[in-house]
């Protein structure tokens, strides 16, 4: 974790499950590092520090992104009455997981988590052991293969796909490059959900950035070893085609649903867009 003084705290590394390559950085473990966790390795920390060279406020952005997820889940479970959540690219378990927020409001809520990192799978066992039986499931899957997710037995046994589901794609799609057809992936997932379902998304943006800042961040991301694609507000809006945006619509995550009360942020310091939309 990058401290306020600019130095990096190196957490103790977790136990390495068998046959897992920890020499290559992974978004979930890098995110864990920025959130102050200990489930990351040297390659993840080096990648994180490389990104921070081009985007010094990246840790603030991660913390604000997590806060956005909590507010969105709270709104959906409390105001919208959603009782099913499909969280793709969920990352490593940390305080304030989707099921903890949703089940605090509505204990009958059902949640499926999915991530493509095997280390997340190992930690998910502990997560599931503490959740009410039958209400939370985890699958190892990649958002780039939506059909494998939608037909997975754990998804079908945990979620009733005839009833509304909240599809959570929080800080995920900027890791999907244009070559992987991100709009088609999201459309396939949303099309499989019944009317009354919701899409929750956040995404790094280059809105408000100078050309110099944009170049610095893109260069840092390229050096970090993890594919990355910032998108503008217009590009982000395309993911919500055919859906009904919930007020305040597409905005910085620090302004959803109301402006952040924290002292720091400016939208350009966080550089993450967020929105929640309903399928009519």
Overview of this structure, please?
The protein is an alpha/beta fold. It contains 11 helices and 8 strands. Strands 1, 2, 3, 4, 5, 6, 7 and 8 form an 8-stranded mixed sheet that branches. Helix 4 (98-105) links the parallel strand 1 and strand 2. Helix 2 (42-54) packs antiparallel against helix 9 (211-224) and helix 3 (58-78) runs parallel beside helix 4. It is globular. Residues 1-14 have low confidence and may be disordered.
Secondary-structure map:
Layout: H1 27-34, H2 42-54, H3 58-78, E1 84-88, H4 98-105, E2 110-115, H5 118-130, E3 136-140, H6 146-150, H7 153-158, E4 166-170, H8 182-191, E5 198-204, H9 211-224, H10 233-237, E6 244-245, E7 251-252, H11 267-270, E8 272-278
Parallel strand pairs: 1-2, 1-4, 2-3, 4-5
Antiparallel strand pairs: 5-8, 6-8, 7-8
Helix pairs in contact: 1-2, 2-9, 3-4
Brief characterization of the structure:
The chain has helices spanning 27-34, 42-54, 58-78, 98-105, 118-130, 146-150, 153-158, 182-191, 211-224, 233-237, 267-270; strands at 84-88, 110-115, 136-140, 166-170, 198-204, 244-245, 251-252, 272-278. With 280 residues, the chain is of the alpha/beta class. Strands 1, 2, 3, 4, 5, 6, 7 and 8 form an eight-stranded mixed β-sheet that branches.
